[in-house]
Amino acid sequence: MLQAAGVGTGDEVIVPAYGNPEVAEAVVQTGAAPVFADIDPDTYCVDPAHVAACVSERTAAVVAVHRFGHRADLQRLKGLTQRHGLFLMEQGESRLPFEEVGRRRAYAAYLNGRLSGLRTPVAGEGHTYQQYVVRVPGNGRPDRDAFARALRSKGVECSVPVKTPVHRMPAFRRDVELPETERAADETLALPLDAELSKRQMQRVVSACNALGGLLQPAF
């Protein structure tokens, strides 16, 4: 898409740093330079306000990535890119069957109502819960990692959705301030949310998480 739009050497493309490096890699393959924008802390998608701050005379395009079942704010991004004459491109997630989305939303509602000590996902409009991503409060990455290890020891599978933001990877390292991106990388944890999970299995997730309240005390 970037090549078809004529993006190339000397251009800049604004992309999110929270996620996989494939978007930045695609930008580099065209000869352009990726410029990393911060994210909205609720949706984990690129923040239109920070995108606006990143626009320069060399900016040619903006890439919006939909994340964890949240949709990027395309309405604001379209307004921004139209004002500046930029291309707006999307990277979507695989579509889930309607029935599976319904089950995932029901499971997410169950977890949201019973988990304590964790920051549960913001149930924005159209959220499909591709992943159920929570925030572990405390000292960031050390506490999040300790919480994850404790959950796994109790037989609850969990994963860190983004271990290293793209702007911190050696191939793309940039000296930019992206506080929400870095905070999300340090605090986020994906809990199991398979459409086939039984209620008993969901109860096990809740019990294991809530039993670890001692790990969730904020630092003073």
From TrEMBL:
The keyword Nuclease does not apply. It comes from the Bacteria. One of its GO terms (biological process) is polysaccharide biosynthetic process. GO terms for molecular function: pyridoxal phosphate binding; transaminase activity. Pfam families: DegT_DnrJ_EryC1. Its cofactor is pyridoxal 5'-phosphate. The keyword Lyase does not apply. Gene3D superfamilies: Aspartate Aminotransferase, domain 1 (3.90.1150.10), Type I PLP-dependent aspartate aminotransferase-like (Major domain) (3.40.640.10). InterPro entries: DegT/StrS_aminotransferase, PyrdxlP-dep_Trfase, PyrdxlP-dep_Trfase_major, PyrdxlP-dep_Trfase_small. Keywords: Aminotransferase, Pyridoxal phosphate, Transferase. Belongs to the DegT/DnrJ/EryC1 family. L-glutamine:2-deoxy-scyllo-inosose/scyllo-inosose aminotransferase subfamily. This is DegT/DnrJ/EryC1/StrS family aminotransferase. It comes from Streptomyces tabacisoli.
